[in-house]
């Protein structure tokens, strides 16, 4: 390349009209002018590129993301503490459950960040396909050799070394689908026929597949997602009240047709006062109470719980909140409650900030799923509800629940990324 020198006849400029050029301000030579030179590295450009991938100029985004990551890390610590004794006695590897949960977290967090980059229009277009696909997966639990029966519930699939709970993905796809339908019917929601069709039949099929597997706890969470989306979608209260009445009647009939569920509900209503209940149906509930009571205000110390020594079933899953209360005390339990309240406020801020009906309804469905399930789990451990068998989102052991929850939160993060802030 030929370098052209400025003309000597050009009038020299004074320092007042042209600032001195320091060597640092001199532009870099083009690579073509020096074939042997390598392009200089630009660390600032790399930082800017990362910020463009994962950044968002929205405090709602960071509030939701930060709270979620904190709950995931906290959950890993509590899974290690609550599972090490039993899994060590059973397999000889005290870290097996923790390593498995850590793998799910390493997989789920990047999926959440990827989902946060996808525009809302993609999730709107994928709603139908997602619901059909997850419903087909839910049907697979009834295939011999694929479906797994765990503690009376036929709600798992097992293919090779891969184990999953499809109903967790049904929760996410149902929230997206309800957002799509209610957004499309915004001007027709005053007519109960437009509310019932197609929401009634489609939701009944999705929830019915879960009920066929005898998983009442998950079915109740799915029902709450439907009712919550109807509320946030703008359905009239008289129609919503009628829907709640019908759902309550169906749930009552379903529980009465199962002697196991009837016994659990009767024992819960009696306060677990019968000795036979204390040694049978209420064993898990009572030992959860003992764990929380022994923690006091400050807790017995991380790793020092006694009930996790084969006294409390599902200590790392459905009843992990009892271990939190035992080892971290009342303070630790309150911190967990506050974190879920902050998570709920993050969802609500994103709902209020958006003018898109699809975003508002699907976000409300994901919020009711995660926050509602969290408080149902805590209420079960405290004895305020009968045992339903639902995990504590983002904290309990379980890959399907963790990954589905993180992807759901990633979708809401994608909404927050492109939504102006409204307090």
TrEMBL record:
Signal peptide: none
This enzyme's EC code(s): 2.4.99.28
MF terms (GO), sorted A to Z: lipid-linked peptidoglycan transporter activity; peptidoglycan glycosyltransferase activity
Chain segments carrying region Disordered: 1-42
Subcellular location: Cell membrane
Highest taxon listed in the record's lineage: Bacteria
Listed pathway(s): Cell wall biogenesis; peptidoglycan biosynthesis
GO cellular component: cell division site; plasma membrane
Catalytic reactions of this protein: [GlcNAc-(1->4)-Mur2Ac(oyl-L-Ala-gamma-D-Glu-L-Lys-D-Ala-D-Ala)](n)-di-trans,octa-cis-undecaprenyl diphosphate + beta-D-GlcNAc-(1->4)-Mur2Ac(oyl-L-Ala-gamma-D-Glu-L-Lys-D-Ala-D-Ala)-di-trans,octa-cis-undecaprenyl diphosphate = [GlcNAc-(1->4)-Mur2Ac(oyl-L-Ala-gamma-D-Glu-L-Lys-D-Ala-D-Ala)](n+1)-di-trans,octa-cis-undecaprenyl diphosphate + di-trans,octa-cis-undecaprenyl diphosphate + H(+)
InterPro entries on file: Cell_cycle_FtsW-rel_CS, FtsW, FtsW/RodA
Enzyme class: transferase
Function: Peptidoglycan polymerase that is essential for cell division.
Protein name: Probable peptidoglycan glycosyltransferase FtsW
Organism name: Galbitalea soli
Gene: ftsW
């Amino acid at each position: 390349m030929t370098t052209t020198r400025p003309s000597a006849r050009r009038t020299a400029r004074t320092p007042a009209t042209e600032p001195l050029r320091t060597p640092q301000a001199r532009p870099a030579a083009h690579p073509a002018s020096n074939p042997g030179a390598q392009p200089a590295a630009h660390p600032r450009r790399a930082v800017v590129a990362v910020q463009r991938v994962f950044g968002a100029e929205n405090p709602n985004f960071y509030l939701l993301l930060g709270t979620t990551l904190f709950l995931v890390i906290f959950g890993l610590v509590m899974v290690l503490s609550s599972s090490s004794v039993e899994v060590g006695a059973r397999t000889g590897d005290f870290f097996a459950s923790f390593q498995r949960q850590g793998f799910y977290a390493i997989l789920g967090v990047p999926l959440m960040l990827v989902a946060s980059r996808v525009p809302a229009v993609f999730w709107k277009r994928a709603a139908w396909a997602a619901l059909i696909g997850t419903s087909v997966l839910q049907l697979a639990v009834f295939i011999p050799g694929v479906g797994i029966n765990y503690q009376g519930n036929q709600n798992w699939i097992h293919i090779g070394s891969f184990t999953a709970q499809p109903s967790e993905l049904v929760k996410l796809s149902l929230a997206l689908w309800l957002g799509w339908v209610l957004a499309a019917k915004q001007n027709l929601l005053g007519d109960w026929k437009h509310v019932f069709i197609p929401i009634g039949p489609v939701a009944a099929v999705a929830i019915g597949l879960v009920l066929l597997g005898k998983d009442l706890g998950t079915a109740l969470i799915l029902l709450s997602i439907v009712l919550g989306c109807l509320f946030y979608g703008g359905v009239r209260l008289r129609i919503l009240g009628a829907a709640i009445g019908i759902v309550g009647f169906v749930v009552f009939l379903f529980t009465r047709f199962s002697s196991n569920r009837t016994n659990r509900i009767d024992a819960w209503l009696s306060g677990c006062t019968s000795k036979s209940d204390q040694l049978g149906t209420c064993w898990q509930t009572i030992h959860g109470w003992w764990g929380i009571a022994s923690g006091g205000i400050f807790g017995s110390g991380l790793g020092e719980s006694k009930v996790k020594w084969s006294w409390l079933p599902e200590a790392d899953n459905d009843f992990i909140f009892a271990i939190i209360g035992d080892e971290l005390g009342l303070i630790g339990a309150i911190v967990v409650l506050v974190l879920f309240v902050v998570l709920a406020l993050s969802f609500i801020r994103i709902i209020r900030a958006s003018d898109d009906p699809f975003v508002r309804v699907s976000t409300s469905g994901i919020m009711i799923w995660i926050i509602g399930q969290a408080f149902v789990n805590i209420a079960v451990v405290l004895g305020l509800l009968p045992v339903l068998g639902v995990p504590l989102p983002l904290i309990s052991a379980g890959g399907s629940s963790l990954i589905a929850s993180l992807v759901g939160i990633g979708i809401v993060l994608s909404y927050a990324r492109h939504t102006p802030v409204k307090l």
